[in-house]
C-alpha cells in the first residue's frame, strides 16, 4: 500500500504513519513525502498470531454463545426444584419430559420431533440472574418461559402447533407474556392451516398480575375468540393433565376433542374453595369436575386415558382420521376386511323390534377391522358416535344402540350426535347412519332435560351437513327418529334398508293402542282380544315393512345383509366427490 503525506513531515513521522497503517490494514505500507519518488519509510505487514491463522485456529463457540446456552439450559429446568419434586407424587411428568414423550424420536421410528420453540426467554428480565435487571434470582419467583411453552412439532408425520403449561411455574398459571405466546400460536395456526395440540395443566390466570392480561384486547379473553375462529378450520385437540379451573377450563371445552387422564385431570368453572364460598357446598375436585363427571354426565370429555402414555396413544389414533384443515379430505388407509364376517349380520338382528342387541357387533361386521374409534362412549349411550374406515375410506358413524334403552333418543344422545355430525361435516368426513330407534324419548323428565331443543340440534346438524351421507334402516325407524338419522327427506346419497327394517310414525304396540284401544276394550273375551291384537299388530307391521317403502320408492334399495358392507363401500366411493351447497345466508340461527 502506498501513501503520500505532506513534504514537511519528518522521517520519524513518516515511520510512525507507516507502522500504524500497516497494523491497521494488515499489509505492507510505503510512505512518500510530497512528490518524492522514493519512500521515506516502509513498514512490513505484521505477522499474524497463530490463533488468527485459519489453518492453525480452532473454530468453536465463543464465550457469548456458551453463556446463551447456559441460559437456555437453565430455562429448560423449569420452575423451582421443590415444585418439580411434587410431580412424581401426582404421577405427572415434568412438562419438558412430556414434550419428549409426545415429540421425541429416541427410537428413530419417525413418530415425532419437536421442530422449534417460541418464546423461551419470555419474562426473562424479571427473574434470571443474568438479566441486567436482576441482582439475584429468588427460587420462588423463577418464571422460565413464563410458565407456558409454545412451538411446532412433527407428530405422527403431521405438522402441528402446540402449547403446554409448566405446572412447576406458579401452578401453570397464565400471565401477560405466556398469554401473548398462546395467542401468537393460535394466530399462526390460522395462517398455516395446521392442527393444534393443547397440553393443559393450568390453575388459571395469575390474579395478582391480572391488569396485564385479563381484559386487554390481546389478553386471555382473546384465547376463546381465536378458538372460535379456529373452530372448523383446523382440528383442535386438548389433553388435560391437572385441575384446570375458570379460564383454563374453557380451552378444553372449545377444543374439537378433549382427553382427560384418570386420577389427574379435572376442569371446572370454579375451584372447590370458590364453590364453597359462593354456594356453601363442600366438594372434592374430582367429584366437582373429574373424568367421571365430564365423560358420563356433562359430555365435555371425548375420551378418558389411563395415564400420560395412553393419552398420547389416543390422540395418535384420533388424528389418523382427521385432515389437517377444512380444505383437505380425511386421510385414507389400505383396505382391510372386517373383524367379523358379514354373513352374520342378518342373524345378529332380532326379528322382534323390542329385543336388544349390541350395535357394536353390526359395526364390526361393516367397517375395516380394528378401525372403529368411538368417541364419548360413556355419554348419551343410546347412540354410538365414532370414526372408522370402510374399504380404507374414513367415515363418521352415528348409530342407535338397541342395547341401551331400546335405542330411544334421549337428550344427551341427541346432543352428542349433533356435535359429532357438525364436527365431521366441518372436516369433510362422510357420514354413515345406522338406524334402529323407536324415536325420541317421551316423558316429563326428558322435557325438562330439553329433548325438543337437543333433538332440534341433531336434526339441524343432519340437515346442514354437506358431506356424503348414507342412511341404513337396520330395523325400526319410528317417529322422528328417521328424520334425525338422515332418512329420505334429509338429502342422503342413499337410504337403504335391511329386510328387518320398518319405517312408521310409531311402533306396532303404540299404534294399536292409539288407534284401536276402544275397539279392543269392547272385546270381553281375553283370548279373543289377544288374538285380535296380534292380528292388528301383524297388519300394522306389514304396512310399515320396508318392502312397502321400497315399492313406493321412499327408500332406494333393500340390501341382503351379508352384502351391506360392499354396498356401502361402492356408494361411498361413487359419491366421494359429490358437491352440495347450503342456501345463501350468513348462518343459521340454531345453536
Helical content, roughly?
25-40%
Low-confidence stretches: none
Number of DSSP helical runs: 21
The overall pLDDT average reads: 90
Distance between the termini: 83 Å
Shape: elongated
Number of strands: 20
Structural class: alpha/beta
Structure description:
Helices cover 35% and strands 18% of the residues. The protein is α/β, with parallel strands linked by helices and 591 residues long. The strands form four sheets. Strands 13, 14, 15, 16, 17, 18, 19 and 20 form an eight-stranded mixed β-sheet that branches. Strands 4-5-6-7-8-10-12 form a seven-stranded mixed β-sheet, sandwiched between helices. Strands 1-2-3 form a three-stranded mixed β-sheet, with helices on one face. A hairpin with a 2-residue loop joins strand 5 (148-155) and strand 6 (158-165). The termini are far apart. The mean pLDDT is 90.
Amino acid at each position: 500500500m502506498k501513501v503520500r503525506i505532506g513534504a514537511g513531515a519528518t522521517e520519524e513521522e513518516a515511520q510512525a504513519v507507516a507502522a500504524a497503517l500497516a497494523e491497521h490494514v494488515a499489509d505492507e505500507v510505503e510512505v512518500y513525502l510530497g512528490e518524492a519518488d522514493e519512500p521515506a519509510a516502509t513498514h512490513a505487514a505484521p505477522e499474524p498470531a497463530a490463533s488468527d491463522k485459519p489453518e492453525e485456529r480452532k473454530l468453536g463457540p465463543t464465550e457469548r454463545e456458551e453463556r446463551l446456552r447456559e441460559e437456555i439450559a437453565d430455562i429448560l429446568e423449569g420452575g423451582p426444584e421443590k415444585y418439580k419434586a411434587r410431580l412424581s407424587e401426582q404421577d405427572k411428568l415434568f412438562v419438558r419430559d412430556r414434550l419428549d414423550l409426545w415429540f421425541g424420536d429416541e427410537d428413530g421410528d419417525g413418530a415425532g420431533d419437536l421442530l422449534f420453540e417460541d418464546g423461551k426467554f419470555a419474562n426473562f428480565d424479571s427473574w434470571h440472574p443474568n438479566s441486567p435487571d436482576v441482582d439475584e434470582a429468588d427460587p420462588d419467583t423463577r418464571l422460565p418461559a413464563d410458565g407456558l411453552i409454545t412451538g411446532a412439532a412433527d407428530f405422527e408425520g403431521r405438522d402441528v402447533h402446540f402449547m403446554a403449561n409448566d405446572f412447576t411455574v406458579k401452578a401453570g398459571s397464565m400471565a401477560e407474556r405466556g398469554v401473548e405466546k398462546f395467542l401468537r400460536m393460535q394466530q399462526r395456526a390460522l395462517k398455516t392451516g395446521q392442527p393444534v395440540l393443547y397440553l393443559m395443566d393450568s390453575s388459571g390466570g395469575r390474579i395478582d398480575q391480572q391488569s396485564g392480561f385479563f381484559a386487554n384486547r390481546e389478553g386471555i379473553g382473546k384465547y376463546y375468540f381465536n378458538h372460535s375462529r379456529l373452530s372448523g378450520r383446523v382440528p383442535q385437540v386438548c389433553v388435560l393433565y391437572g385441575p384446570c379451573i375458570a379460564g383454563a377450563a374453557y380451552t378444553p371445552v372449545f377444543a374439537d376433542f378433549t382427553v382427560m387422564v384418570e386420577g389427574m385431570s379435572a376442569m371446572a368453572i370454579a375451584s372447590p374453595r370458590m364453590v364453597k364460598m359462593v354456594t356453601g357446598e363442600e366438594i372434592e375436585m374430582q367429584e366437582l369436575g373429574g373424568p367421571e363427571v365430564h365423560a358420563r354426565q356433562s359430555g365435555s370429555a371425548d375420551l378418558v386415558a389411563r395415564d400420560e402414555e395412553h393419552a398420547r396413544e389416543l390422540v395418535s389414533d384420533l388424528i389418523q382420521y382427521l385432515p389437517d384443515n377444512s380444505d383437505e379430505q380425511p386421510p385414507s388407509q389400505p383396505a382391510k376386511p372386517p373383524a367379523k364376517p358379514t354373513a352374520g349380520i342378518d342373524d345378529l338382528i332380532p326379528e322382534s323390534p323390542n329385543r336388544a342387541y349390541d350395535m357394536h357387533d353390526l359395526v364390526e361386521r361393516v367397517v375395516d377391522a380394528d378401525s372403529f374409534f368411538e368417541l364419548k362412549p360413556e355419554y348419551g349411550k343410546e347412540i354410538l358416535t365414532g370414526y372408522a374406515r370402510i374399504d380404507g375410506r374414513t367415515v363418521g358413524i352415528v348409530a342407535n344402540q338397541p342395547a341401551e334403552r331400546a335405542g330411544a333418543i334421549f337428550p344427551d344422545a341427541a346432543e352428542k350426535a349433533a356435535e359429532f355430525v357438525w364436527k365431521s361435516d366441518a372436516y369433510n368426513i362422510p357420514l354413515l347412519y345406522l338406524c334402529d330407534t323407536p324415536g325420541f324419548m317421551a316423558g316429563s323428565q326428558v322435557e325438562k332435560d330439553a329433548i325438543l331443543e337437543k333433538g332440534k340440534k341433531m336434526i339441524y346438524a343432519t340437515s346442514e351437513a354437506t358431506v356424503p351421507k348414507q342412511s341404513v334402516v337396520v330395523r325400526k325407524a319410528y317417529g322422528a327418529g328417521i328424520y334425525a338419522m338422515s332418512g329420505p327427506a334429509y338429502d342422503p346419497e342413499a337410504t337403504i334398508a335391511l329386510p328387518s327394517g320398518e319405517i312408521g310414525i310409531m311402533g306396532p304396540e303404540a299404534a294399536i293402542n292409539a288407534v284401536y284401544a276402544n275397539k279392543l276394550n269392547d272385546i270381553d273375551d281375553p283370548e279373543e282380544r289377544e288374538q285380535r291384537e296380534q292380528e292388528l299388530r301383524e297388519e300394522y307391521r306389514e304396512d310399515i315393512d320396508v318392502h312397502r317403502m321400497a315399492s313406493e320408492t321412499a327408500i332406494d334399495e333393500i340390501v341382503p345383509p351379508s352384502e351391506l358392507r360392499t354396498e356401502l363401500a361402492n356408494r361411498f366411493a361413487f359419491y366421494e366427490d359429490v358437491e352440495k351447497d347450503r342456501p345463501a345466508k350468513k348462518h343459521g340461527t340454531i345453536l
